[in-house]
Design goal:
The protein is an alpha+beta fold. The protein contains 13 helices and 19 strands. A hairpin with a 7-residue loop joins strand 7 and strand 8.
Length: 482
């Protein structure tokens, strides 16, 4: 009995201990769960949401952790992540794809839909350099004499080497009335030019029209922004009331813009159902976009293009040429044959990237090739003269490329400098004095400040008066109106 009792007691003791042990385990589990829940709900360190495993990013995470743990300075997490995104976009080797910070994205959206403050020039990154595509009509950039293909090497002394176009825009833009100094390298001109520009408000007014004579009108479209098609309709209606029977559509120096605007405007001149443009996606699938014929395709039309006509300008030019038989006059266009879209992130930053090629109605991809005009006409040689820095003094016995440019400008507006080799001699000085007297400026024979600015203004007026491309376009139009 004792043995049995002992055994029974032992057995009872063991059963009691197992029960307590199991209950203790449950208690610990529930306690741990409660502490964890409390910590996650009220603690400072939040749980990280882990996305589905993406092994292709392992190297990126390792690089980030290596820098985070071993770099000799504390790192800015946001800057590192932005840099990684920038690196991905830059590896595309596509000048039209950009990652934009909050500020840059705000600037990008503003330039499409409203006015902005800056110099008024469309730029792009090309072969590692920042290049002017086109200055906007009436902008400080145009008044300063900037031209398509001018390369901006620095802004206020800061090099643009290695920057994308969005980063460059951030430096170039600024408040109205402030000064920015650009270092510009022009193709064919050996010495770089220093170009000081006073920033201004750049309104997105994109259509300018006027009657050339009793029956011919000319309309310039400077870019394709949110309201461009509406502006054009209003302008054409006004010109029709004034007797317009034929139209010269001027797309020179137009850097492009919104695709839907190019399609809408093309539909005004291309018969209904005929193609305006084709889009080809990454898989080679082609989407055809026909004319909606919102306007009058029977209006006699000639379109002017040049090397500053890009993107949407080229879509419109190719559409009217190939689907409506409209002649193009001027110079070969820029050659941008891709379509971009933009994706906004929650923090306000933005990713602009290429989604498709666009092809002409005949299926031609004009990228990096441009569109050849039916009638090729160049502007006079003096129309391509470089800018003279008005802060620089050009006086007797000086010798430079700026002096040579000034001599050519003087000759173009009717003053004989005697030579055009860049040496400022007595005869050049006499020509400057004659010019200054005619313009009621201090006649000291020195080109600087107001004298230099006036000289460049008169040259611009001369170019407008002797616009060989516009004159040829009018001549071609008159032939079509007979």
């Amino acid at each position: 009995m004792e043995q049995e009792q002992a055994t029974e007691n032992k057995s009872g003791y063991i059963r009691l201990k197992k029960f307590h042990f199991i209950m203790l385990l449950f208690f610990i589990v529930f306690l741990s769960a409660g502490i964890t829940t409390f910590a996650l709900a009220f603690g400072k360190e939040k749980v990280v949401t882990v996305a589905p495993q993406r092994t292709e990013f392992n190297k990126l995470y390792e690089a980030y952790d290596t820098l985070e743990n071993g770099y000799y300075k504390n790192l800015n997490q946001k800057k590192l992540i932005n840099g990684a995104i920038n690196g991905m976009v830059e590896s595309l080797d596509d000048p039209y794809s950009d990652y934009m910070s909050n500020e840059e994205a705000k600037s990008f959206h503003g330039s499409i839909s409203s006015s902005f403050e800056g110099i008024g020039a469309e730029i792009q990154e090309k072969d590692g350099h920042i290049v002017i595509v086109s200055p906007i009509k009436g902008s400080p950039a145009e008044k300063a004499g900037l031209k398509p293909n001018d390369m901006i090497t620095s802004v206020d002394g800061k090099s643009l080497q290695g920057m994308n176009s969005t980063q460059a825009v951030t430096l170039i833009r600024g408040k109205k009335g402030t000064k920015v100094e650009l270092m510009v390298q022009r193709p064919g001109i050996e010495a770089p030019m220093t170009v000081p520009i006073i920033r201004d408000e750049i309104p997105i007014e994109t259509v300018y029209g006027e009657m050339v004579d009793d029956s011919i009108a000319k309309v310039q479209i400077t870019s394709f922004s949110t309201n461009t098609s509406k502006e054009l309709v209003d302008t054409l209606n006004d010109l029709q009331k004034k007797g317009m029977k034929g139209l010269v559509l001027d797309l020179r120096q137009n850097p492009g813009g919104l695709l839907d605007q190019a399609i809408s405007i093309s539909s005004m001149f291309v018969p209904k159902g005929k193609l305006i443009v084709k889009e080809e996606d990454r898989n080679g699938k082609i989407k055809e976009i026909p004319s909606q014929n919102e306007g009058n395709p029977n209006l006699p039309l000639v379109v002017l293009i040049d090397k500053g006509s890009a993107s949407a300008s080229e879509i419109l030019s190719a559409a009217v040429k190939e689907s409506a038989g409209v002649p193009l006059v001027g110079e070969k266009s820029f050659g941008k044959g891709t379509v971009q879209t933009a994706a906004d992130f929650k923090d306000g930053s933005n990713l602009k990237y290429t989604i498709a090629k666009w092809l002409t109605p005949n299926g031609t991809w004009i990228h990096k090739k441009g569109i050849m005009p039916d009638v090729e006409v160049a502007l006079p040689d003096y129309a391509t003269l470089p800018i003279i820095n008005p802060d620089k003094e050009l006086a007797l016995s000086t010798s430079s490329t700026d002096v040579q440019t000034a001599q050519k400008m003087l000759k173009a507006i009717g003053y004989d400098p005697g030579r055009e080799d860049g040496f400022f001699d007595e005869k050049t000085s006499a020509a400057v004095v004659a010019f200054q007297k005619a313009q009621k400026l201090p006649a000291n024979g020195v080109l600087k400040g107001e004298s230099t600015l006036k000289l460049m203004d008169l040259l611009r007026e001369k170019i407008k008066t002797n616009d060989t491309q516009m004159l040829k376009a009018i001549e071609v139009l008159k032939g079509r109106m007979k």
